[in-house]
Write a structure and sequence with these properties.
Length: 340
């Protein structure tokens, strides 16, 4: 099945079919859906070389990862994001270019792919509060979108993010409503903007309750199971241990649960745990009843939406800055209960 044959079956011009498959905004949604369904039915695969020659595009989206963050490539949160984004790229006939570079070569790698026309757009991951990549990419004049935000960057740029501050503020307030006053924080790396925002939400809830923040029961580090486990052991050994924990991901929450069980403590009865849940496909938070009380927002859905927003920039005759902020949902699980 080639483009000419597919166009004939649909009784549409080859130009219309091509534009529908590539997401051009002038093609209406009904036609786009009809073409996409037919392409799937007849197993049509666009000739990427022909598309490249016809459109002047590379038909590829770039994701550049420095060595210091290469653990992201095996991180199940990152994997789910990429899976969601990849679904959208595939629908538009696009490939994904994933590149790992030395930290000191990251900016030059962005310049290289932009100047060579190797990619048509870029998604920026794990922004810091004052992330230099944003101004650098803006100067390169290439479509890009940031998954997250950089609080201290003032120039306009496109981003998609979750309201991390409000999410953790809501979660911490839930624990406060259960009577907990000694609430530990096990956070991600706070050089990252999302982790700092989550810390801000935690502190905001404490302030609203008239409680002083205690740095001795706060930890930050890589969001993995050992971080949750080791941090919990340290805090449980203190003279005045927390009765509840807020943590930045379901992954360190598993470490918290392991530490509590080793100490003979029952989660939800002796110590409460609330986490942020990215709805990771390979690590579901229970089935009918959530294991952890959590602030939930799907990272795979975020990957899809980031990709859609970037494709809209690429296809638009005059790209515009677009931003989108999602709220996380509080789901009640078995890991929380009233203070003992």
């Amino acid at each position: 099945m080639n483009l000419r044959e597919l166009s004939k079956r649909l009784n549409l011009s080859q130009t219309t079919v091509s534009r529908a498959l590539n997401g051009y905004p002038e093609v209406n949604e009904a036609t786009r859906k009809r073409v996409a369904e037919a392409a799937q039915l007849y197993n049509y695969r666009p000739n990427v070389r022909a598309q490249t020659l016809a459109t002047g595009r590379s038909m590829s989206i770039g994701h550049i990862i420095p060595f210091s963050k290469q653990s992201e490539m095996v991180n199940i949160v990152f994997a789910d994001f990429i899976a969601g984004a990849g679904e959208v790229y595939s629908t538009h006939g696009y490939n994904m270019t994933l590149t790992v570079v030395r930290d000191e070569d990251e900016l030059s790698a962005y310049r290289g792919v932009a100047e060579k026309g190797a990619v048509d757009g870029i998604i920026v991951h794990s922004p810091a509060r004052n992330d230099p990549r944003i101004a650098f990419l803006a100067d390169l004049d290439i479509p890009f979108l940031v998954h997250g935000r950089a609080s201290e960057v003032t120039l306009p740029y496109s981003w998609m993010d979750v309201n991390n501050t409000r999410a953790i503020e809501t979660g911490t307030q839930y624990l406060l409503d259960l009577g907990h006053r000694r609430i530990g924080l096990i956070n991600g790396q706070e050089r990252m903007d999302f982790a700092q925002r989550r810390r801000d939400g935690y502190l905001s809830a404490l302030r609203a309750a008239g409680l002083a923040a205690d740095e001795t029961i706060m930890r930050s580090g890589e969001m993995n199971e050992p971080h949750g486990y080791q941090s919990t052991l340290e805090l449980l050994a203190s003279a005045d241990p927390p009765t509840a924990f807020v943590t930045s991901s379901i992954v360190p929450a598993l470490g918290i649960r392991r530490a509590l069980e080793e100490r003979g403590l029952k989660i939800g009865r002796d110590v409460s745990v609330l986490c942020y849940d990215d709805e990771i496909s390979y690590l579901p938070n229970g089935t009918e009843t959530p294991i952890f009380t959590a602030m939930r927002s799907s990272v795979r859905d975020a990957g899809r939406r980031c990709a859609e927003m970037l494709m809209e920039q690429i296809m638009a005759p005059t790209p515009q800055i677009k931003t989108e902020l999602w709220d996380a949902e509080l789901v009640i699980g078995m890991s929380t209960g009233p203070v003992g």
